Amino acid sequence: MSTRWKPTFAIKATFAVHAAAAVGCVLAPSLWPWALGMLVINHAIITTAGLLPRTTLLGPNLTSLPDDAVARREVAITIDDGPDPEVTPRVLDLLDAANAKATFFCIGWRARDNPALCREIVARGHRIENHGDSHSKVFAFFGPGRMKADIAAAQATFADITGQTPRYFRATAGLRNPFLDAVLHKLDLKLASWTRRSYDTRCGDAETVFRRLSRDLGPGDILLLHDGHAARTPDGQPVILAVLPRLITALRQHSLNPVTLPDATS
Residue 23: phi, psi to the nearest 5? Predict the structure, then answer.
C-alpha cells in the first residue's frame, strides 16, 4: 500500500510501556518489579482485546456496514469456514431461490481441495473473502511472519482460483493479536468481523440460531453463519440450511437487502 501503517493508541501505548520498562531497568535496576508490573498489566489488556472479536483497540475492524449502505437498507450475510462440498452447493441454491447475495469467508486449503466450488460461488454473484489458509485454532498466537505467510497463501489461492483478489480478512473465531493490523496493511486487506453471530458451529437448534441473528435486525448489520463446521439439527441437517431461508424472509419483511461486503462498502 502507498500509505504508512498507523498503529492504534493501544498499540502505541504498548510500544511506550515496553520502552519505558527497558529504559527504567537500565537506569534504575531496583525498579524492575514496577517495570514487570507495567508489562503484566499491558499484556493483560492487549490479550483481552485480542479475545474480543468486535473491538477496535488493535486496529480498524468492520463490525457494521457504512452509512451509505445503511441508507440503502443493506445487510451482509457472511458465511465462514467453507467451501464445504456437501453444504455449500445447497446454500448457493437457497440464496439463488431468494435472489440474495452473500460473502463467503473461505479457508485456503479447503479452496484448493474444491476449486470448482469456489468458482461456482463467484459465478453466482457472491464474493469470496479471506479466512486464512490453515484456519489454525492457534492463529492468535502466530508471530507476524507466520501470520503474514498464512494469510498471503490464502490470498494467492483465491486470486488464482477465482480471478478476484479478496479485500477482507476474518480471523479464526475472530481472535487475533497486535501483529495482525500491520500484517493486513501490508497485504492490502481490511479486518471484518460482524454485528452479531449465531454460534451455529456449536448450536444445532435452528430456532435459537435464528433468534440470535434476527434480534434487533436492521440496516447495516453483518450476520455470521457457517457452511463449514456447521452444527447439525436433531434430524441431522446442517443448521444453516434450516435457518437461511427463514432469515432471508425476515430480511425481506424488514425491507432489508442482502448484498456482498464489497458491494456494500464500495
Answer: -65, -45
Closest CA to 197 of 104, 95, 80: 80
| Ramachandran angles phi, psi of 67, nearest 5° | -60, -40
Count of C-beta atoms within a 10 Å radius of residue 182: 17
Average pLDDT, 10 consecutive residues per value, the chain (266 residues) = 80 77 77 73 81 95 98 98 98 98 98 98 98 97 97 98 98 96 98 97 98 96 98 97 98 98 96
d(CA 122, CA 23): 53
Q: Which three cell numbers stand for residue 102?
A: 452473500
**What are 128-159's pLDDT values in tens digits?**
999 999 999 999 999 999 999 999 999 999 99
Contact 103, 76 (CB under 8 A): yes
What does the angle CA 55 – CA 61 – CA 67 come to, to the nearest 5 degrees?
115
For 50-57, the CB contacts below 8 A with 24+ separation are 50/140, 50/175, 50/176, 50/177, 50/178, 51/140, 51/175, 53/171, 53/173, 53/174, 53/175, 53/193, 53/194, 54/174, 54/193, 54/194, 56/8, 57/8, 57/10
